Amino acid sequence: MVAAFPLVSTGETPKYLMAEVTLPEEGVQTLSARAQALGIPTLDWTEAGPRLYGVQSEAELLAAERFLIYDPPYFLLSVQTSSGRAVLRGEGTQAQLIVDGSDLLVPPPPEFFELLDELGLTPQGETIELQVYEVPLKLPRVPEGSSLDPVLWALVNHPDWLGFARDYGLELTGLRVRVVVEKQGELAAELEPYIVSSSDGLAELLVPIPLLPTLGTDPAAKSVRPPYVPHPAEG
Q1: What CATH class does 3-134 carry?
Q2: Domain coordinates of the chain in residue numbers?
Q3: Which residue from 13, 14, 122, 177 could staple onto 135, CB 3.0 to 4.6 Å apart?
Q4: What is the DSSP letter of 191?
Q5: Which DSSP helix (H) or strand (E) runs through 63?
Q6: pTM for this prediction
Q7: CB-count burial class (<10 Å; 0-12, 13-18, 19+) for 14
């Protein structure tokens, strides 16, 4: 596999290298089992909730040099390499390869692609075209017709979901973010599995990040925002 890329110095504006890739279907379906067999710390969502393998806590998972979050059909594989952190995240066979460097943006080293091969995730017959993505300094405008809070919309499109959520105080469990929906009527059936609690006018959800745009355009959702965090009382 050949990775075509520009070599770019990072400046004040955060920059990443990104590429769209198509993955083998069998590799995606067996991803969690293969990762566990290779000893990669894994958070695996099941009908009973998240389960951890190889670590005792999610904090320990996120501190590992490599880890997998698997919430079918969504996943995020993160690997700390000699040239920076490389992430493969996606939905089913459609994924993004994302590279975050410190001083220079360079493609992942060969051992990263060797790991993808062991996991059955090597795109066959593709040249990976890594392109520079520059993160806007201001939060992007929410599209017309979406009820998402600007922070949540920015999260969807950010190359570093985990870092962005940490910086903005968003609560994540795996790839699911906790949100509050002000609603009129019932949310779509595909969103029901993610509802934590609901009343006539409010619902709290723990929803996968890639599903936020769907939630934001649901006719019943009048606003979608992070839960309010009370400020400490002044005394």
Answers
A1: alpha beta
A2: 3-134, 150-225
A3: 14
A4: G
A5: helix 58-63
A6: 0.91
A7: middle
